[in-house]
Automatic annotation (TrEMBL), chain A:
Name of this protein: ABC transporter ATP-binding protein
GO molecular function: ATP binding; ATP hydrolysis activity
Domain called ABC transporter: residue spans: 2-233
Keywords, ordered alphabetically: ATP-binding, Nucleotide-binding, Transport
Organism, scientific name: Christiangramia sediminis
InterPro entries according to UniProt: AAA+_ATPase, ABC_transporter-like_ATP-bd, ABC_transporter-like_CS, ABC_Transporter_VariousFunc, P-loop_NTPase
Keyword check for Protease: no
UniProtKB/TrEMBL annotation, chain B:
Protein name, as recorded: DUF5687 family protein
Keyword Transferase attributed: no
Keyword Lyase found: no
Membrane-spanning ranges: 27-51, 63-82, 103-130, 142-161, 173-190, 202-226, 281-299, 305-328, 349-373, 379-403, 424-443, 455-475
Keywords associated with the record: Membrane, Transmembrane, Transmembrane helix
C-alpha cells in the first residue's frame, strides 16, 4: 500500500530522515517508535505531503504523494490539534469532514453512535466549540474524525498521548478491529512501547532518521524493544 | 529589564515569518512617514504667516486655539484607525520572575515613541518658536502653551488605547459615541453651542497663565494610570476568556447547499467570519464604508474629477474583498495542515474563497444602488467598479495571498491583539485602487466617460470569463508555495 524509496529529508545540512526502502502492505497495523527527533512526525508529514522530501519518493497506493492529490480521497490522518478547526462544534466538524468524504449528515450520525462510550457524554450536544474542549477530548474528536468515510489508510501520530486510561484501552481495541474487519492500513507512532506492541502487527524503530529495527510483533517484542531503548543507559 | 524587552522585540521582528514582506512595507511606510514629517514641518513654519493673511484682524494664536478641538478630534480619529497598540507577547512572561508592573510599563512607555507622537511636535515647536522669535510673544507663556498642547496630544495617545480596547471587539457600541460627536459638531456648525470656542478659551487662558499647563500634564498622568490599571488587571490567562461560558451558536447556513461542491467550504467560511472577532469586524467595517460616497458625491470639488469616483466605487464595493481577501489563506492558518491533508483539491478551496468574496461584492454593489440619487452616472460607475472588483481585483488579491505565510491567530484573546489593523493593511490595497483609476482617467481624458466606464466593466467581464483558467493557475501557485506556507503558519507571533 505504502512504499518509500530512497527517502530522505535534510534540514540545513542535518539529515533527519533517511529511509532506503520501506514497504507497508495493505491492511497492516504498522507502528513507528523512536525517541524524540527520531523522525516519526517527519515521516508522517512526508507521507501527507506537508513537507517536501529532499530525495526519494513516497508512494501511497502507487500514487506519488508529492506530485498528485489523488491519494487524498482514501487517506485520512490526525497529526495534532492543528488538524482541528477551533471555532466549530464537534458535530459541525464531523459533518464538515463528512461533506469532504461524501457522507451526509445521517451517515455521520449513525457513524457516531458507535463512539458514544468513547465520547463519555462530553463531546456531542454540549454546545462547545472545539477550542474550548480539553486536550484529551480534542484528541478524541480528531481521531474519530480520521475514521470518517472508510479510509483505506489511517495515519495517527501519538494517538495515545493525552488520553485517559479508559480511552487508551478503548482506542487499542478500536484500532485492532479496524485493520481486522475492514482491511484498513493503520499507521501509528507512539512513545508507549506497551501500547504499540499490543496494537501493531509490525513495529519499526527509528533512530536519528534511520530504521534500526523492523520486526513482526510476537511475545518477545516488548522485551526486545525495552532492551533496545535501555541499552544506552546500561552502557553508561 | 527594559533592555531585555527591547532585545526580545528586536528578535521577534527579525525572526518572524513575514520579515521579508514587512520589511518591504516598512520601507514604503518610512517614505510615507518622511513625506508627512515634511508636510507637518512646513505647516508648522508657515502657519503663523498663513493665518495672518487669512484673518488679518485676529491674533493667529487665538485662531489656532479656536481650531484646536477640531484638530484633536481628527487626531483621535486617525489614531483610532491607524495606530496600533504596541504588543509584547506576554503569555510567556507570566510565569517568569518578571514584575507585572515592568511589563505593563514597558508596553505603555514604548507607545510614547510612536511616530504618531512625534508628528505633532513638528507642528507645535516651529509654530511656537516662530511666535517667540519673530513675533516677540513672551517666551514663558508660549512655552507653557506648547507644553499644554503637546501633553494634550499625548493624552490622546493614551485615550485612544482605552477607546480601542473597549470598542474593537464591539464596534456597535461605538455608534452612540459617533452620534453624540456628530450632534456636537452640528451644534457647533450652527453656532448654537460652540464647544470649540470654549475649548479654545481654555488654551487662551493657559497661554496667559502658563503655570496652568500643569493641568494637561496631570491629565496625562491620570490617563497613564488608567491604562496601567486596565492592562495590569488583564494580566491573567483567563482574562480574555470571559465569554467562554456562552453557548456555541449553531447557525447552520444550510442555504449554502445550493452552491454545490463548494458548499461545505462556504458554510465553514461563514462560520469563520461569524464566530471570530477578527473577521467579524470586517463585516461592520464594510457597512460603515458604504457611507463613504456621502462624503464625495455631494462635494463640488470632486465633480470635475470622475476618476476619483472610481476610487470611491472600488472601495465601497470592494472593502470586504480588501479586508478579507488579502489575508487568504491566513484565516485558515491554524488548521492549514489539515486542509492540505484532507480530501480537498486546492482548486476547490480557492474557488470557494473566490465565491465568497464575489458574493460580498455583489451584496455591497446592491447596497450602493441608492446612490443613484446623485445621478445615473454614479450608479453605472459603481456597478462597473463592482465588475472590475470581481473580475480583476479578486484574482489579484488571491495571487498576492499565495505569498502569505503569516498566521492570524483567531483563537487568541483580543487582549493586546490588534494584528494587522495598522497602516500596513491599507497599503496592500493600493494597486487594487490605483490601476482602475489610471485606466479610467486615461480613457476618460482621451475618449469619453461612457467609454471609460465600458473599459472598466469590460476588464472585469474578461476577468470573469477567464476565471476557470485563472483558478487553475492560482491553484498551481498555491500548490508550489504549500510547503513554505505550512512552515510559515507554524510560526506563531508577529
Amino acid at each position: 500500500m505504502i512504499t518509500a524509496t530512497n527517502l530522505s529529508k535534510v534540514y540545513s545540512g542535518n539529515k533527519v530522515l533517511d529511509i532506503e526502502h520501506l514497504d507497508i502492505p495493505s491492511g497492516q497495523n504498522f507502528g513507528l517508535v523512536g525517541n524524540n527527533g527520531a523522525g516519526k512526525t517527519t515521516f508522517f508529514s512526508l507521507l501527507l505531503d506537508l513537507i517536501q522530501p529532499t530525495t526519494g519518493n513516497i508512494f501511497n497506493n502507487e500514487i506519488t504523494v508529492s506530485q498528485s492529490e489523488d491519494w487524498k480521497p482514501f487517506t485520512s490522518s490526525f497529526i495534532d490539534e492543528s488538524f482541528l478547526i477551533g471555532y466549530l462544534t464537534p458535530e459541525e466538524y464531523f459533518y464538515f469532514i463528512g461533506d469532504l468524504r461524501n457522507r451526509n449528515k445521517a451517515d455521520i450520525d449513525s457513524f457516531l453512535t458507535q463512539f458514544e462510550d468513547l465520547f463519555n457524554g462530553e463531546i456531542i450536544g454540549r454546545k462547545k466549540y472545539l477550542r474550548d474542549l480539553s486536550k484529551g477530548n480534542q484528541k478524541k474528536v480528531g481521531i474519530v474524525a480520521a475514521l470518517i468515510g472508510d479510509p483505506e489508510v489511517v495515519i495517527l501520530d501519538e494517538p495515545f498521548a493525552n488520553l485517559d486510561p479508559t480511552t487508551q484501552i478503548r482506542l487499542k481495541k478500536l484500532l485492532k478491529e479496524l485493520s481486522k474487519t475492514s482491511g484498513t492500513t493503520v499507521l501509528i507512532s507512539s512513545h508507549d512501547l506497551i501500547h504499540v506492541t499490543e496494537v501493531c502487527e509490525r513495529i519499526v524503530v527509528l533512530d536519528k532518521g534511520i530504521i534500526v529495527r523492523d520486526m513482526e510483533t510476537s511475545e518477545a517484542t516488548l522485551n526486545e524493544l525495552e532492551q533496545y531503548f535501555s541499552r544506552e543507559i546500561a552502557e553508561s | 529589564m527594559f533592555k531585555k524587552f527591547v532585545w526580545l522585540e528586536w528578535k521577534s521582528f527579525l525572526r518572524s515569518a513575514s520579515f521579508g514582506k514587512s520589511l518591504g512595507l516598512k520601507i514604503l511606510m518610512a517614505f510615507l512617514a518622511l513625506y508627512f514629517s515634511a508636510m507637518f514641518l512646513f505647516l508648522g513654519i508657515a502657519l503663523f504667516p498663513m493665518l495672518k493673511e487669512i484673518y488679518p484682524d485676529a491674533d493667529p494664536l487665538r485662531v489656532v486655539n479656536g481650531f484646536i478641538l477640531t484638530y484633536f478630534s481628527f487626531e483621535l480619529l486617525f489614531r483610532f484607525l491607524l495606530q496600533t497598540l504596541p504588543v509584547i507577547d506576554i503569555k510567556s512572561l507570566m510565569i517568569l520572575p518578571v514584575k507585572k508592573s515592568k511589563v505593563v510599563n514597558f508596553v505603555l512607555v514604548k507607545s510614547l515613541f510612536s511616530f504618531y507622537n512625534s508628528l505633532p511636535l513638528l507642528l507645535i515647536v516651529p509654530f511656537g518658536l516662530f511666535c517667540i522669535i519673530r513675533e516677540d510673544y513672551p517666551a514663558a507663556n508660549m512655552l507653557g502653551w506648547m507644553l499644554a498642547i503637546y501633553t494634550s496630544t499625548l493624552c490622546i495617545n493614551y485615550l485612544n488605547f482605552i477607546i480601542k480596547k473597549r470598542f474593537t471587539d464591539n464596534l456597535k457600541a461605538l455608534l452612540p459615541v459617533i452620534v453624540v460627536g456628530l450632534i456636537l459638531a452640528l451644534l457647533d456648525y450652527l453656532e448654537l453651542f460652540q464647544l470649540t470656542d470654549y475649548f479654545g478659551r481654555i488654551f487662551n487662558y493657559i497661554y496667559s497663565q502658563p503655570l496652568l499647563a500643569i493641568i494637561p500634564v496631570l491629565l496625562l498622568i491620570l490617563l497613564y494610570i488608567w491604562n496601567y490599571k486596565n492592562l495590569f488587571g488583564k494580566f491573567y490567562l483567563d482574562a480574555g476568556l470571559k465569554g467562554k461560558s456562552k453557548a456555541a451558536s449553531t447557525a447552520e447556513f444550510s442555504w449554502t447547499k445550493k452552491f454545490g461542491s463548494i458548499a461545505p467550504f462556504l458554510q465553514q467560511d461563514l462560520k469563520l467570519i461569524w464566530r471570530n472577532k477578527r473577521p467579524k469586524t470586517t463585516i461592520y467595517l464594510s457597512l460603515i464604508i458604504l457611507g463613504y460616497g456621502l462624503i464625495f458625491y455631494p462635494n463640488d470639488t470632486y465633480q470635475e474629477m470622475p476618476a476619483f469616483f472610481v476610487f470611491v466605487g472600488i472601495f465601497m464595493t470592494g472593502i470586504f474583498m480588501i479586508n478579507f481577501g488579502q489575508f487568504v489563506p491566513s484565516w485558515d492558518a491554524s488548521y492549514y495542515q489539515m486542509i492540505m491533508a484532507q480530501n480537498i483539491p486546492m482548486q476547490q478551496y480557492l474557488a470557494s474563497k473566490m465565491g465568497l468574496i464575489t458574493f460580498s461584492v455583489v451584496v455591497l454593489a446592491i447596497l450602493t444602488t441608492p446612490y443613484v440619487y446623485f445621478g445615473w452616472n454614479i450608479l453605472l460607475l459603481n456597478l462597473a467598479c463592482a465588475l472590475y472588483n470581481m473580475g480583476v481585483n479578486v484574482p489579484m488579491l488571491l495571487f498576492a495571498g499565495s505569498f502569505n505565510k503569516k498566521a492570524i491567530d483567531l483563537d487568541k484573546s483580543p487582549f493586546m491583539n490588534y494584528q494587522g489593523t495598522g497602516a500596513s493593511q491599507w497599503l496592500v490595497s493600493l494597486p487594487l485602487l490605483v490601476l482602475p483609476i489610471f485606466f479610467f482617467w486615461l480613457v476618460n481624458k482621451f475618449v469619453n466617460y461612457e467609454a471609460a466606464l465600458g473599459v472598466i466593466a469590460g476588464l472585469g467581464i474578461i476577468g470573469l470569463l477567464l476565471r476557470p483558467s485563472i483558478l487553475t493557475f492560482l491553484a498551481q501557485k498555491y500548490r508550489q508555495r504549500k510547503y513554505v506556507t505550512i512552515q510559515g503558519f507554524k510560526q506563531k507571533g508577529d
